[in-house]
Amino acid sequence: MRVQLKTSYHHDIRLFPDARRALRFAGLVALAIALPFGLDDFLIGEATNVLIWAIAGMGLMVLTGHAGQPSLGHAAFLAAGCYVNAILMERFGLPFLASFTLAGIVTGLAGVLIAIPALRLHGIYLAIATLALSVLTEDIIVLAEPWTGGVVGLVAPTITIAGVEVDRYGSPDRFYWLCLAVALLVTLGYRNVLRASLGRAFVAVRDSEVSAQAMGVNLARTKAAAFGLSCMVTGWAGALMGHFFFTFNHEVFTIVISIQLLLMIVIGGLGSIQGAWYGAIVVGIVPQAINVARDWVTGAFGGGGLAIPGIEAGIFGLILVFFILFEPLGIHGRIMKWRVWFDLFPLCRRDMFRRQKSYLRTERMR
Amino acid sequence: MDSLQLIVSGLANGCVYGLIALGFVLIYKATEQVNFAQGDMMMLGAFTALGLANDSHLGLPFWVACIGAVVIVAAVGWLLERTVLRRVFGQSQLAVVILTIALGFVLRFVAGTIWGHDPLTLESPIAGVNVRLGGLVLGLDEIAVVLVTLLLTAALFAFFRRTKLGVAMQASSQNQLAAYYMGIPVKRIHGFTWALAGATAAVAGILFASKGSIDPNTGLLGIKAFAAAVIGGFGSLPGALAGGLVVGLIEPFAARYVASGYSQVAPYALMLVVLILRPHGILSQVHGKKV
Question: Which residues contact A234 (CB under 8 A, 6 or more apart)?
Answer without folding.
Answer: A56, A59, A60, A74, A77, A78, A81, A107, A111
